[in-house]
Amino acid sequence: AEPRVVVVGGGFAGATVAKYLKILDGGIRVTLVEAQSRYTTCPASNWLFAGMGDMERLSVDYQALRSRYGVEVVADTATALDLSRKRVQLQSGGAQAYDRLVLAPGIDFRWDVIAGYDAAAAERFPHAWKAGPQTLTLLRQVQAMPAGGVVLIAVPADPYRCPPGPYERASMMAFWLKQHKPRAKILILDAKRSFSKQALFEAGWAKHYGYGTPNSLIEWHSLADNPLLELHADSKILASEFGDRFTGDVLNIIPPQTAGSIARRSGLADAGGWCPVRPATAQSTFDEFVHVIGDAANYAPIPKSAFAANSEAKACAFAVVSLLREQPLAEAHWLNTCYSLVTPEHGISVAGVYKPDTGNTINSVSGAGGVSVGNNAEAERAEAEYAQIVYRNLVADSFA
Ligand code: FAD
């Protein structure tokens, strides 16, 4: 009988692995279980805050996976995994049997870190860390804010989805505010001591937004020793451990994250909340017939990005085919590139190449990655263009 692979989650990781499994071996039956009929990409969603693009253009569907590659797409939510019987239970009542399961459910949020900030409060103070309706809510809030208003962006400790994402968002908001509300301010309250591409962001903010001067549109504050512990929703105040109180007109609170809940409920996450894997095959360390990829899995030091999710998915597809067909495994390696826009015409990037070490660790290949050169107007313009090209190619490679 034809081997059966079920993929749970049709984001960048799940869509890519489903597509590439069929490309590598058309004789495998591949079923993708995805809760939503359309997917909204988080990449490029920050650009809306600068007035670039619209939500409609961030939306993709699963038609190409079906018709071009023969993936069976099931619009349903996986509610439970029966690991001993190798079955995925669906909300509609049915079940999907598998020989190998690929789990790619992305992230869920931890509501136990900032008291008073839960799923209901997030409708009013959107995280917008899953692109969709909250992205638009946040956009409208920023646009409606008073002329001298303040946006607070609360950023969690590592690891979380898209390390440079909060700083790109601040940049894109600042670009719009500079034209429409130049007296406004963006206050980044960070649980970390430093952040991704910090020198490049700060140089860009100094160049465009007065960073480092009293009139800067953006201020960055590390609260690594004084974490945010409480939201007072009525007064819009975020309070820290030592009693500092921060208030703003718009509160964009990005909570700490974990692997998608289906992974945690099935016992496939560790105490840190993420799914440990054997990198070479993406197999869960808890169950050899389950592979975990994308944001839900722990591939550190590879960051949680769509580019990395796509790369992990391809390596996983090769491994799954080899295991099902009892062929020797190819050596895995992974790529990541994260572009960020500081303005629509000023791009910066970080890139890395990764290989498995002996054992269960991943090494960054030295000399094979790096960040933008910095302070080079021509390169900044070119990288802003590459950011858009890479986005389009990544979406096409994953969903089309
Ligand atoms: P997701 O994309 O979250 O997909 C998970 C899917 O699983 C979802 O569609 C969900 O509906 C489905 N699902 C979950 N549970 C179930 C279930 N039980 N049953 C059925 N379906 C289920 N990355 C980049 O590379 N470049 C960027 O420029 C970039 N910008 C970003 C900007 C922002 C603001 C944010 C928030 C993120 C950004 N990222 C970027 C990161 C990127 O969005 C994530 O790393 C990527 O989406 C991870 O893919 P994934 O497939 O693991 O998870």
TrEMBL record:
Superkingdom of origin organism: Bacteria
Alphabetized Pfam families for the sequence: FCSD-flav_bind (PF09242), FCSD_central (PF21706), Pyr_redox_2 (PF07992)
PROSITE patterns hit by this protein: PROKAR_LIPOPROTEIN, TAT
Transmembrane segments: none
UniProt domain Sulfide dehydrogenase [flavocytochrome c] flavoprotein chain central: residue ranges: 135-255
Domain Flavocytochrome c sulphide dehydrogenase flavin-binding: 332-399
FAD/NAD(P)-binding domain segment(s): 4-107
Keyword annotations of the record: FAD, Flavoprotein
Designated name of the protein: NAD(P)/FAD-dependent oxidoreductase
Source organism of the structure: Methylomonas aurea
